[in-house]
Amino acid sequence: MAGIVAGNCYSSTSPMVHTSHLHFAQKLPIPSQFVKKGRFYQYKISAIFWGPKKTAHFLGEFDLEGGSADEVNPRRVTLSVISSIFEVSPSEWDACAVDATGYEKRNPFLMHGFLSSLEESGSAVKETGWLAQHIIARDEFQNILGVVPLYLKRFSIFNIVSNVLYLNSDCSHSYGEFVFDHSWADAYYNYGSRYYPKLQCCVPFTPVTGQRILIRNFWYKNQVFDKLVSALKDLAVKFQVSSLHVTFPSENEWRRMKEHSFLQRIGMQYHWTNRNYKNFDEFLMDMKQSKRKNIRQERKKVSTQSLNMKRLRGDEVKARHWDSFYKFYESTTDNKLVPSR
Questions:
Q1: Are 24 and 283 in contact (CB under 8 A)?
Q2: CA 272 → CA 14, 279, 291, distances in Å?
Q3: Which residues pair with 267 in a beta bridge?
Q4: Are strands 243-246 and 198-201 parallel, antiparallel or unpaired?
Q5: Cis peptide before 154 (omega within 30 of 0)
Q6: Vertex 101, ends 100 and 107: CA angle to 5°?
Q7: Dihedral angle at the C-alpha atoms of 262, 266, 269, 272, nearest 10 degrees?
Q8: In the chain, where are the structural domains located?
Q9: pLDDT single digits (tens) 195-207
């Protein structure tokens, strides 16, 4: 019932077409420790990297193979886990993110600025079910060679008894991942086990395909990649979680992870691509007549409501705009969100 999962999304040149994201899984030991307290069953985790001090926790080390003996090259790489992205400088994290994609294809959602904003705003923190467990690879000169954005879900309700951490998994969730695995959670529940907590390698709240194993572009990058993937699997076993999920990685990562015994699964997305349309009417001509008619009628209704559209950029967006946006968003979720059981 346990699994390690990786996912991927592909785009297409069609103006509106579904795209698939593929996944892998590998069996892991299912945790057997359950503690009954009141009406809740609680998970017992024997090791967790979190505490009041921001300290990197040692995972392991390995020696690099190859390279020129005449050059000054790193030889030993140390792997560790940090509980906050602020424990890594923006320049070091971003160097890994840019090297992983190439400068021209750099992904803003992988950058330190975006990930740190999720933490600083309280959006992706332990109180909301996102406990950062980012993996860092450093050489003997303390240079960062690779990073992996990783979260333990969920950690918002906990007790510590005799230096052992107990998680209340009844409040766990998979929200903000955009890969809907609720049926997996139900299967675990019916099996008499617990799906949460789990490890999630992703960018929270962002279903955008991109690199997940972020590595500097050096001759030994393949070795670092393999060790970081192995570290992910080792953490899953160490934490005794049900599963490890790597969602929306690049196609190359998706293929390479198969070599590490990951299993596949497939999902879908819909992407829109501009096929060099000269105007909106030309775009409508790619649709069926009934679709064109409905859209034109909807746009006509908007034009009769005396609405003005204005685009704001950067500092033009003020606090009052964000307050209004939040009210609209909250209204939408209140009307659409179905309470979980």
A1: no
A2: 7, 15, 16
A3: 21
A4: parallel
A5: yes
A6: 115
A7: 90
A8: 3-272, 280-336
A9: 999 999 999 999 9
What is the Cα–Cα distance from 180 to 182, expressed in whole angstroms? Answer: 6
First to last CA, the chain: 22
Q: Tell me the CA distances in angstroms from 55 to 96, 129, 143, 191, 192, one per residue in order.
A: 21, 20, 17, 37, 36
Q: How far apart are CA 90 and CA 286, in angstroms?
A: 44
Q: Residue 207, CB half-sphere, CA atoms under 13 Å: how many?
A: 17
d(CA 177, CA 202): 8
pLDDT digits (tens, 9 = 90+) for 218-267: 999 999 999 999 999 999 999 999 999 999 999 999 999 989 989 877 77
Rounded to two decimals, the pTM is 0.75
- Radius of gyration of the chain from Cα atoms? 23
DSSP state for residue 93 in the 8-state scheme:
H
Report helix, strand or coil for 243.
strand
Q: Are 232 and 243 in contact (CB under 8 A)?
A: no
- Angle 112-120/90-101 helices, nearest 10 degrees? 130
Cβ contact 137:228 at 8 Å:
yes
> In sequence order, what are the residues at sequence separation of 6 or more whose Cβ sits closer than 8 angstroms to the Cβ of residue 140?
74, 75, 76, 78
d(C-alpha 129, C-alpha 22), whole Å? 25
